[in-house]
Specification:
Structural class: mainly alpha
Helix content: 55-70%
Distance between the termini: 22 Å
Radius of gyration: 13 Å
Largest sheet: none
Strand content: under 5%
Number of helices: 2
Length: 53
């Protein structure tokens, strides 16, 4: 669940949505929206720094 708080995860989901658009062109509008939302989240979130021990 901690992975959902990382921007790289959301960027990857945005890319996955764009790849899926090639396989499911009927859902292109929905997949574009999901890709835009995931990309916006990835851009707004900050990368968590590892905790020093």
């Amino acid at each position: 669940m901690d992975r959902l708080k990382e921007p790289s995860t959301w960027a990857g989901l945005g890319i996955l949505a764009q790849v899926l658009k090639g396989f499911f062109p009927a859902y292109a509008l929905v997949l574009d929206g999901a890709s835009a939302a995931a990309g916006a989240l990835a851009g707004v979130m900050t990368e968590n720094k590892p905790k020093a021990q």
